[in-house]
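Tutorial handout. Part one gives the primary structure; part two gives the three-dimensional structure as tokens.
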Amino acid sequence: MPRPRCKSNIGFFPQVTYFKPAGVRLGEIEEVVLHHDELEAIRLKDLLGIPQEEAAKQMNVSQPTFHRLLLSAHEKMAHAVVNGKALRIEGGNVTIDERFTPPCGWRHMCRHGWKEKLVSQKGDAFPNKEGKQGGIMKIAITSVDGTLDGIVDERFGRSRKLIIYDSESKNHEVVDNEKNMNSPQGAGIQSAQNVVNSGAGAVISGHLGPNAFRVLQTAGVDVYTASSMTVTQAIQAYEQGKLAKLAGPDVSGHW
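Part two.
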């Protein structure tokens, strides 16, 4: 008797689960079934750009299993597109882990009803996530020493500390980001994932590379730049609407 497989963690259930070629009747078309765990592997690796080791940890699977899911997903999607088959998303041995981000940004989520669905199930599932510069939300600020009087760290991915500040309660907590300082690769992505997991809706830092910016943008986290300021000064400037908002990465990768 085969050993039962452990369930894979997935961070979302897609709103759209069926894709078909235009101009072909449903009764005449063949289908390819893409499982939810295969789609999650695509989301984490190809959309968010998360390194395979970290993506496998998020899904609670081994790296070889994650690699097999990714290869299977690529093969199925290529088969459907090249051969004109419909793609149906269903099945898979999975469990939903809502700590991780859906495939679209938070703004799109709200429009598509994802947030409303989770709130109806669990209460306020994403507190302090909405707002604009100066509004009520959690803010993540890169810090050189983890104090409000310390300087904002110019490097996002390799910052020593992250300060998560609640602009409603005026309380803050410190997240240790030091293990990413000397990481040979993926530092920006992991730091961005730390921000997303904290529930912050905005980031204040010096500069961001393309991978980190892509993860934050996908999660709907706004990014603001602050230079030569203390964390307190940066928070005050944010609350007064004086910080510049980044529309894209402003440094190359591995900066």
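Part three, for discussion. Confidence is low (pLDDT under 50) at residues 100-131. The domain at 8-96 is CATH 1.10.10 (Arc Repressor Mutant, subunit A).
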